[in-house]
From TrEMBL:
It comes from Alexandrium andersonii. This is glyceraldehyde-3-phosphate dehydrogenase (phosphorylating). One of its GO terms (cellular component) is cytosol. CDD domains: GAPDH_I_N. The lineage of its organism: Eukaryota, Sar, Alveolata, Dinophyceae, Gonyaulacales. Pathway: Carbohydrate degradation; glycolysis; pyruvate from D-glyceraldehyde 3-phosphate: step 1/5.
Amino acid sequence: GITPPSAAKLGINGFGRIGRLVLKASVWSKSAQTVAVNDPFMDVDYMVYQLKFDSVHSRFRSEVKAKKEGGKEWLVIDGKEIRVYHEKDPGSIGWGESGAEYVCESTGIFTTVDKARQHLKGGAKKVIISAPS
């Protein structure tokens, strides 16, 4: 589907089970669009594999591929590009340059207000912590 211009632009930090579920939900949502993903420990090709072949939540029905160009990477889902980062420091992730307004913090590491606040340095406006904090 076509995402309306008013859709919330999401960034996802951590591409484990929760991060992948947030991305999948946003693909089918008209009110949210994932524009960036960060995971320092997973390369973009493995992200594609993890999305395509989820043994618990079934196969992802969208077309997914990796794009690498000029030292940058993207997940391409049904033709839409999602910028991929591999930063360990949340303050170094280019949320602002990718257009992410909201960040879903799903690493399980940055679960306090002080730690999650680091995402704001990268240009995010708000952080949603997806773990008990």
